[in-house]
Amino acid sequence: MKFVRKRPMLAAFLIPLFIEIIICIGNSIYPFGNNCLLHMDLYHQYCPFFSELHDKIINGGSLQYSWDLGLGSDFVSLYAYYLASPLNWLVAIFPKTHIIEFIELLILLKIAASGATFFYFLKEHFGLIGKDGKYHGDTLMVSFVFSTAYALSGFVAAYSWDVMWMDVIALAPLVIAGLDRLVREKKPGLYYVSLALAIWCNYYLCIMLCIFLVLYFFWMIINQKDRKIRAFVQFALYSLLAGGTGAMLMIPEMKILSYSGSSEMTFPKIMEWYFNIITEIGRMCTGAAVYEGAQHWPNLYAGVFCLILIVLFFLNRRISLKQKVAGGMCIALFAVSFANNYLDFIWHGFHFPDSLPGRQSYLFIFVVLMMGFETYRKKRVIKMWHIIVAAVISLILIIVSCLKSADEVTDTYAFLISILFILAYAIMMALIRIVSGKRRKLVMQFICGFAVVELAVNMALTGFGCTSRENYVQNEDDMEKILMLAKKDAKKDGDLFYRVEDTERMTKNDSMRYGYSGATQFSSLMNINVSHFYQSLYMEGGKNFYCYNGATPISSAMLSVKYFISQSPDLESPLRTLVGKCGNHYLYKNNYNLPIGFVMDENAVNSLILLPTSKLNGINTLGTVLGADDVTLMHTNCDQDVALGATVITVSQSGYYYAAYDNCSSDSLTVAYKNTSMVYSKTTHRYMFDLGYFSAGDRITISNNDAEEINFTVYKLNMDAIEQQYDTLSRENFELTGFTDTNVKGNINMSKAGRLIFSIPAEEGWSMYVDGKKTSYTEFAQTFISIDLDEGEHEIELKYETPGLKQGAAVTISCVGIFILITLIKRYGRTQFRHKNSVK
What we know:
- The chain is built from 28 helices and 29 strands.
- The strands form 8 sheets. The chain has a 5-stranded antiparallel sheet, with no helix packed on it.
- A hairpin with a 2-residue loop joins strand 14 and strand 15.
- Helix 8 (163-185) runs antiparallel to helix 11 and helix 13 packs across helix 17.
């Protein structure tokens, strides 16, 4: 107990950390088993992004651009969106084989830190330390309950895997405590530093925090007796300075986001209500499964004891009417915000989130816990009938919410468990009113222990989704060797740059995981024009991803994909040549490949019209403008035996085949033939299936796990058309003479005027130099960098600089400088004032 009283913030840190470790052991998280905490986007995005950051720190790559994310992407904006926490640089001290464990450690420590920072907020906001410098009574013990409730809330249970959000969760209590200090004591240091750091770490979640700070400021100002104008001026000044401090990351972020599918900010025209507000109570229940889908249900759990305490908050006569009105309005605003599309749109930065709803719920939880603690602080006026009324109202709210809710939103057992907990808390609260002395203290200790157990049980039931670590890392050794084999083979060909694709990729960001240039990515910052280009050629594309799946030999060549990795030994065909094998992985070379720059005739460029909806027509139109005499993909009538869960296609002629389905709701299809099988994931994204080369009479089985009857349209590849198209594209040879993360340099001898096209997404950061002169480039298919060249030899150079980085850095340095200058002036003024008084 001495340790706790001497180091209470450390204790507030260790309590949730201990609970987290126990849950990890129970879930067999490595090194206690073969699982890991990779879940959703942490699995598909963040872990590969951490791998790229690790490589750039260790190997000295440019922090401005990366060729390992899709066809090439700005890295500063990626860093700002996903990796900006200063703690992430510690990844350099971990071996690449244990990046997963580094991320998990960050998650655990950030959650524990949020417990410590919320304890600090309670201490500062409520003045828990008396004049004797000690925590009185059971205040310290109860503070640990509330700090643990914040650290293990429903928001954290749902989104702890979103590691970049956890910085803001940990910093938010410090920011709000800093605003308290700014208004009450006119001391801006904590507010400015903590808010600037939060914005730097993750500006997105800070959008909600900043909206809340405005509301909280007015909550405070209502109770401020004087100097309201001064408080407003200071709040505005230091908020702007904190926001400006993050400009070095935010300005590049905004510029790159303008190319993404998330750039649209159209306010909804029609008001919509997602659900009945009373059903939100169910999301506060113990054991309520976390929700991460698209139906907008928030994760609001903060301990069911908060329900009773909130009712008691409004019954407590020692709490002023102003506080009750302000608190009630704040809770009502949040409740409506979760259910109303207008407010939901505003809270999320004038944008509707793709799944992961109610991201402002961590602030609702903060308010609920703050109000609950206020109730506890003024518990002496609580009478027995208050407890009975509070328990009855809480039970009624839960029962009505249960009757209004569907089981898929909140399970019935969660309501039943919560009812039992409320009855238990009500009985224990009543006992406190009855007993006295040591017995009252024992009951209070038991309630606190009981509450922590409730929080731990809920986290164990609903938090820390995990997956197999063994499966995630099983290919790392083989991939390292196969990529080295590709590098050696490319070196023999004299290639400074090439792209690689993998049929059995674990994620759409495997190129960042393993460190190779690919043609696939999944990121909120993805250039939407590339996705549209892919879709126009029947490849896989969406709002925040594009993928090599569905590529034909010509689209693959235009993307400079030279190598193809597969676990199948039977993919050698007229399109691919086997290079070698490493473990279970085979490396194939695409027989049709082009350098990073290729030439098209201007008439062909002007004739080519590609739309995301064109698909098969897009493939054949491209072939036509490139000089093919016939269509690229020919519809072929093959016998199809369609049954539940499987379709068997019998090939009538020897050749290379592709297929597309008419209707399919299965998200995964398995194509099997001879001794080979390949799994096509995310098949609902509607892309062309590369079946492979078959002889007449071969049978292909395409199966699904949903017992669907699926009909396929089968196409045979016209090899003559492919040869004609490839001959057109490979006539002019762009020779790459220099290549770095931010510089592409080469020469080309144009036999006649034409358009040089680079398989590089056209974005603001690129500058084009032709024969040493800076030249404006054009866009090919509204997607790629291109330039019109006259006949003759030309030296071409592309240079990249993150757009807005210098301007943002200037704003950041200015804001930091202004804050330091104001601080020094204030300190000088105080020194002079003390000096004058001492002289007098």
